[in-house]
Design goal:
It contains three helices and five strands; from the N terminus they run αβαββββα. By secondary structure, the chain is an alpha+beta fold. The chain is globular, with a radius of gyration of 13 Å.
């Protein structure tokens, strides 16, 4: 299996995992050891954020955009409270 395809499968698994979490839940590479080495997960999260699959909310912190009626949006107020609590 090529490295590119392996990364794509890992990216799909990571996005699927994030979709099961509550809206506004913060993802950090150090909290995702089930997806591989921390450096690999960090690069993957960064790549997915550059391509619009995640939102970068802080250094090493990412959140999955919520799906609204008119497309993707930032998390709700409750989600923002979770973000602020994690950043404080």
């Amino acid at each position: 299996m090529s490295t590119e395809r392996k990364g794509s499968i890992l990216a799909d698994r990571l996005v699927a995992y994030a979709a099961t979490l509550p809206e506004g839940h913060i993802l950090a590479a150090k909290a995702l050891p089930q997806f591989g080495e921390r450096a690999t997960v960090t690069r993957l999260l960064s790549h997915l954020a550059r391509h619009g699959r995640f939102l970068r909310v802080g250094r090493g912190l990412y959140v999955l955009p919520a799906q609204g009626r008119f497309g993707e949006r930032t998390p709700t107020v409750e989600g923002h409270r979770m973000l602020l609590g994690a950043l404080a």
